Structure formats: structure tokens, C-alpha cells
């Protein structure tokens, strides 16, 4: 068994779970400006109040796994993306504090609304910038970062930053469609389709731009026969978009969220396939970046215990708080 590949899969799973779970509650903050009514905002926040902090467990798992198993990637990526990652953490702090204080504030509630909006949008934007900077490659010499502090600031990374903001907004909007009803749900349905079209545009542009700005990915796509194996992916994206349109017209409750998850999964799968077998594009492979096998096996034992526990309490939390959230339900405290 190749323990390095197993650990790469665990970290990939952790990051995907974070994007999906924390993505939709960040998305709620992003769509907040479209719904200025205070009671509706209370209701929107109550849809994720019991689970939002647990969603970030997956980010911790991915970061801890990276530190333990791929220390070269951890040190290099942290050095290269220090500023956007610090910006992301600052925004997550503002978002978390606004969650805790907004429900108790009176005169300053509008300020905490702004903190929630800015923290959610900022965290998504900085995460997207980090993704774009990672995709375009990080210069590595002798296992250390060899670039400058602002190498991450490029048109491509700004594009991916905006793309992730739209992705999270769509996830958040579709989550709210599933959790609300009545007039609020009808207005949320009207936002889903424009967000889907904008996201589709970002998918097309990023998919075309990625191989153009990273020769290693272009070579893997076109010289290794990968292009034809990935050919069904655009078709599946088009199918998701088609059924999203039908779901919005039919005022479906849960289908839009499932289709949004499908779009995220397809994009994530294409990303992983394009990067393989590199831990840092065009610089360091997974095996070059990995810790000694003994360290990987030791930490894998701990992961085998903790990951089922995380999955269990995450599943239980969503099961207990399933169903619609209505005005008059218990508020978050």
C-alpha cells in the first residue's frame, strides 16, 4: 500500500469537505446584501447556527495532515501564500465573532452584519486567491520557497478568488432554498439561476486559462491522453446546469443544493486530475514532499481513529437539525 497516496486522498477529502460545508455558510454571508430585512437575516443565520463552527474542523484536519505528512508543501505554501492566508484567517475571525455577537447586539447589529458580510466574502476571496496562486506554480529551490512576498498577486489568482466567491454564494443560496420556505424561498430561487450562469462563466474561463499559464498541466492534458478522458466533464457540467434551470423553474427545495454540489465536485475532480502527481505544480511530486514512511504510518493510525469520529458527529449534527427553519424557532445564542 502506498501510504503517501492514501494521505494525499485524506487531505483531498478534507479540503473538499471544507469547501462544501464551510462554503455554504460563507455563501450565506455573501448573499446577505441581497436580503436587507433584519428578520430574514436572523432566519438565514439560524439555518447554519448549530453547525457552522463544526464545518471548519475539516480545514484543521487538512492543515494538520499537510504539516505532518507533507512538511515541504506546508512550509513552502505557507511561505508563498502567507499574506492571503493571514487575510483569510482574519476574515474568518470577523465572521466567527459576528456570529457570536450579532444575536445579542441591538444598536450595533448593522455593524456586525457588515462584519459577517465582509468576513464571509473576504475569506472566500482569499481562499480563491491561494488556490489560483497554487495552480500557477510556486518556485521551489532545494525544498524552500524561492519567490517573493507578492508572487501570488496575479490576474489569474484574482480571477480564481472571484470565482470561489461566486461558488460559495451559489452553495449558500441553494442551502437557504432547502432550509427556508414562503416568500424568502421564492426570492432565493430567483438568485440561484443568475449565480449559476456567472459560475459557469468562471468555470469556462478558468478551465481555458489554467493549461495556458501552467505548461505542466497543459502537457498532462494534451500529451498524456488526459484530454479525452476528461471530455465527459464539460458534458456533466452542462447537464447539471440544465437541471439547475429546471429545478429553479419548478421551485424545487433540495435539488438545487445537490446540483450545486455536483458542480463543485466536477470542478474539484478536474483540478485533482490535472495536478497529479505533483504536490506543488511543476516543482515537487507527492513522494518528494512526503515525510518518512514511518511518520506517515504513525499518523495514519491516528487519522483512522479521528476521521470516523468527525464524520459521525458531523452527520449527527445535520441529522438532528434537519428540516426547515422558520420564523419563531429558537434563536442562536
TrEMBL record:
Membrane topology term: Multi-pass membrane protein
Gene Ontology CC: one annotated term: plasma membrane
Coiled coil: none
Gene Ontology molecular function: electron transfer activity; oxidoreductase activity, acting on diphenols and related substances as donors, oxygen as acceptor
Pfam families (UniProt xref): Cyt_bd_oxida_II
One Gene Ontology term from the biological process aspect of the record: aerobic electron transport chain
InterPro entries attached to this UniProt entry: Cyt-d_oxidase_su2 (IPR003317)
Subcellular location(s) per record: Cell membrane
Name this protein carries in UniProt: Cytochrome d ubiquinol oxidase subunit II
Gene encoding the protein: cydB
Amino acid at each position: 500500500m502506498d501510504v503517501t497516496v492514501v494521505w494525499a486522498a485524506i487531505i483531498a477529502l478534507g479540503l473538499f469537505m471544507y469547501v462544501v460545508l464551510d462554503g455554504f455558510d460563507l455563501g450565506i454571508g455573501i448573499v446577505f446584501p441581497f436580503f436587507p430585512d433584519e428578520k430574514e437575516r436572523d432566519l438565514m443565520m439560524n439555518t447554519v447556527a448549530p453547525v457552522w463552527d463544526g464545518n471548519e474542523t475539516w480545514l484543521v484536519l487538512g492543515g494538520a495532515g499537510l504539516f505532518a505528512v507533507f512538511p515541504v508543501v506546508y512550509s513552502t505554501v505557507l511561505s508563498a501564500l502567507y499574506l492571503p492566508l493571514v487575510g483569510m484567517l482574519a476574515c474568518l475571525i470577523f465572521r466567527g465573532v459576528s456570529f457570536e455577537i450579532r444575536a445579542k447586539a441591538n444598536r450595533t447589529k448593522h455593524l456586525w452584519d457588515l462584519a459577517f458580510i465582509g468576513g464571509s466574502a473576504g475569506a472566500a476571496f482569499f481562499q480563491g486567491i491561494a488556490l489560483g496562486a497554487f495552480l500557477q506554480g510556486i518556485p521551489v529551490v532545494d525544498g524552500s520557497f524561492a519567490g517573493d512576498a507578492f508572487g501570488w498577486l496575479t490576474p489569474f489568482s484574482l480571477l480564481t478568488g472571484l470565482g470561489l466567491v461566486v461558488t460559495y454564494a451559489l452553495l449558500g443560496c441553494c442551502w437557504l432554498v432547502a432550509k427556508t420556505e414562503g416568500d424568502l424561498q421564492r426570492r432565493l430561487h430567483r438568485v440561484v439561476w443568475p449565480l449559476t450562469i456567472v459560475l459557469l462563466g468562471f468555470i469556462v474561463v478558468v478551465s481555458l486559462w489554467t493549461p495556458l499559464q501552467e505548461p505542466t498541466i497543459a502537457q498532462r492534458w494534451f500529451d498524456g491522453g488526459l484530454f479525452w478522458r476528461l471530455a465527459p466533464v464539460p458534458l456533466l457540467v452542462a447537464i447539471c446546469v440544465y437541471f439547475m434551470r429546471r429545478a429553479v423553474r419548478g421551485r424545487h427545495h433540495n435539488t438545487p443544493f445537490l446540483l450545486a454540489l455536483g458542480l463543485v465536485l466536477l470542478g474539484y475532480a478536474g483540478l485533482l486530475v490535472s495536478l497529479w502527481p505533483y504536490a506543488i505544480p511543476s516543482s515537487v511530486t507527492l513522494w518528494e514532499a512526503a515525510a518518512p514512511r514511518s511518520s506517515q504510518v504513525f499518523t495514519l493510525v491516528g487519522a483512522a481513529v479521528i476521521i470516523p469520529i468527525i464524520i459521525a458527529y458531523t452527520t449527527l449534527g445535520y441529522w438532528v437539525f434537519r428540516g426547515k427553519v422558520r420564523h419563531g424557532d429558537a434563536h442562536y445564542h
